[in-house]
Amino acid sequence: MRILLNIIWLVFGGLWLALGYFVxxxxxxxxxxxxxxxxxxxxxxVYALWPFGKTVVDKPTSGIGSLIxxxxxxxxxxxxxxxxxxxxxxxxxxxIIGIPLAIANLKxxxxxxxxxxxxxxxxxSTPTTxxxxxx
Length: 135
Hints:
The chain is mainly alpha-helical and 135 residues long. It has helices at residues 2-30, 35-49, 64-92, 99-107, 109-113; strands spanning 54-58, 118-122, 131-132. The protein has a three-stranded antiparallel β-sheet, with helices on one face.
């Protein structure tokens, strides 16, 4: 079921969302100071291509640097990517088949707003999950 949902996701919205993350990552990698944002953006872009079967967990080693970075990310790119998720979720929720995709889209908003200090793992690999997608 995950493979089917991921294929439908990829065709009907995942590719465009991932493209947005990749563009944000390229822009962030232009300056040396924002390279960590670019790396986080590329990581989330890959996650946006194939989200079902993966989950987002907090890194236990993240500290004040992640918090400061997340505030900067929120202002520069996070809000725009979150708006893209909301618009895509509304469009997907129009059909019955798109409702699980819309829910998954809405669950991606927290990581699009604050990506630093988070880790994307497979669903069964960790007991403490904060955002999981339907199996």
